[in-house]
Amino acid sequence: MSTRVFGKSVAAVLTVVWIGSVGMVVVSIVPVALGNASARGELPFSRIILDAKQSPWGKAIGDIDGDGFADVLAGFAQGGVYWYAYPIWAKHFIGSNGGDDLQVADINNDGAMDVVTNGDQIVWYENPRGTGGDPGANRWQRHVIDSATGSHDIVVGDVNGDGRLDVAIRVEFGSTFIYFQNGPDSWTKVAITRASNGNGLALLDVNNDGRVDIVENGYWLEQPPDAIKGTWVRHDFAQWPAGSSVMVADINRDGRPDIILSPSESAGKISWFEMPADPLKDTWIEHVILSTVSYVHRIRVADFDNDGNLDVAFAEMDQSKTNRIGIVYNEGAGMSWRLQILGTTAGHNIAVGDIDNDGDVDILNANWRHGNLELWRNDLSTTDVNLSRYKAIVFLNPSGEILDASQRAAFQRYIENGGGFVGIHNAAALLSPTMNKWGWYNKLVGAKYDSEISTQPMRLQILTHAHPSTLTLPETWNFRTEAYNFKQQPKSDGVNILINLVESSVSGGKMGSDHPYSWYHAYDNGRSWYTNGGANSADYQDPRFRAHILGGIEYAAGVSVPPPVARQTTLHTFLSTAYVTVYAFVSDVIAFGIRVVRHFSR
Questions:
Q1: How far apart are the C-alpha atoms of 112 and 74, rounded to whole Å?
Q2: What is the C-alpha to C-alpha distance for residues 52 and 35, in angstroms, rounded to an integer?
Q3: How far is it, in rounded angstroms, from Cα 94 to Cα 452?
């Protein structure tokens, strides 16, 4: 279904959650001003053990099998490299060259994510999916970048702008090298002689000259016009321990990327250094994020609370006295920070990403010894705190086990607290053992699927216009769509029927003269509205159906209901026609301003 087309069914006054076949995927349509996320308290995280009693050093997140969901990768020191397939975390062998770091990138530009590792050698493993193979069953071809050098850090990027991904490394408390890719099996090694011995590096065009530079502990190395033969000039901006973790990101949202540093092999602090207007001549101002940390081998930057500000995640190795895994939330422009401790199991080389595609960022962690490979799942998107931000939840053709136990509980509490529900077509036919047996949900929707009436021209009878979802519809609505027979008459649960299907107009109807098509009711302190339309993309091309859905969302969201309009009057006919005509035009305009972020089913 075109997101632009469906966007036409939402007005700018609403904030809703769309739930499709991929689960509780939160998509904010024209979000309201939510204020500071920290005022709502700490974020909920769940600790999930992916591989018990395993302590990989290198860790990364990436979609290895091309299913649209991020998988987990782990490299073991003096051991192998593995990937774990979402969602059951089946473990698959990649190769033997495990080390301190690893990166996921499409090295040979074949559309499949490869893996770069740094054990005793610098190696990249070719994902067999790029040649039609199965990354879980077929062998990953090993390509050696440097057979004589290992490293502590690896970063991947197109350093010299030739369209091919290059690899930069920093040997543990040693030299910095860049491997410029000539081809998948041909690399030019360049030593960055002005770099000090140490740990940690990142890639960034610091001075905005179109050339990617290298950032390390308190200085950056400017790429010369000839990246291979020229001299990389060093520019110092701070004093920092040689053992460090380095990240780059725009912390204060001024359009200039900043530099974030932590001590990786000692005690110290986490700070961000504000990039000045002229990074060559002006002073880089240090801002302390967390004043006391130790052995923070990796920091990562992401917006964990979805407030628009970049936060900092960290983990302390078990040499630390506190062994914390935590997030420091950016309260605005990097000038105020709030600490949340997730756990004290220690961590070595964390990775971050939205593993379950639910719209929030999760953390992958393991200590370098005596630990577990664990996922700290961010539950922001499916909790009471997050759902309370929305006026209505829309089930847009969902199917299967879309909600787990905690999500079902949060959803029910949302309705009990006065939230709104909109069910579209398949919301009455989830066809999953758990959802089918959930009596509360079945009563919320109002009816359960029994059988299908295939797509064909149908005659729909509008029973009342005293509702925003039927206000503009004609007395008899001729609509080509798909419909359902239901196992029970929804009126038995106290719903108010808005539209009936005239069974004589279709083949396949089994409910007789009182065949419901759309209804609404107050339920468990909330509001519920359902329509049987919306099975096909073509349904959403019809401005009458879009107006129908918009009215349902308005009701569920608690927006003021228009006064009743008398049936079978010239005035009603005139207003209906005028509203639909104007709505079709205005909704096209509104659609340009609606930002649909995530999945829709079908």
A1: 18
A2: 39
A3: 46
The one-character DSSP state at 30 is: S
The full length of the chain comes to 602
Bridge partners of 59, per DSSP, are: 74
Contact 93, 79 (CB under 8 A): no
Residue-level pLDDT at 291? 97
At 204, list the tokens: 């960034």
Q: Tokens for 169, please give them.
A: 């490394």
CA 452, 455, 459, 465 dihedral sign is positive
- Residue of 84, 63, 179 whose CA lies nearest to 129: 63
Return the residue matching tokens 């974020």. Answer: 43
Give the C-alpha separation, 500 to 514, whole Å.
7
Q: Which of 426, 331, 268, 357 is nearest to 69 (CA)?
A: 357
The Cα 516–Cα 443 span in angstroms is: 15
Closest CA to 103 of 84, 79, 75: 75
- Cβ count near 322 (within 10 Å): 13
Distance of CA 564 to CAs 200, 465, 469, 567, Å? 67, 7, 12, 9
The helices-and-strands tally (H runs, E runs) of the chain is: 7, 36
DSSP string covering 290-344, please? EEEEE-EEEEEEE-TTSSSS-EEEEEE-TTSSS--EEEEEE-STTS-EEEEEEES
pTM over 0.90: no
DSSP state string for 172-234: BTB-EEEEEEEETTEEEEEE-TTSPSBS--EEE-TT-SSS-EEEETTEEEEPPSSTTTS--EE
Please check the confidence at residue 233 and state whether its pLDDT lies above 90: yes
Alpha carbons within 13 A on the beta-carbon side of 448: 15
User: Rounded to whole angstroms, how far apart are CA atoms 242 and 145?
Assistant: 26
6 pLDDT more than 70: no
- Of residues 390, 452, 454, 337, the one with CA closest to residue 18: 390
- Given a cut of 50, whether residue 583 has pLDDT beyond it is no
Angstrom distance (rounded) from CA 398 to CA 291? 47
Express each pLDDT in 184-226 by its tens digit: 999 999 999 999 999 999 999 999 999 999 999 999 999 999 9
Contacts (Cβ under 8 Å, ≥6 apart) of 222: 206, 207, 211, 213, 232, 233, 234, 235
Residue 575 per-residue DSSP state: H
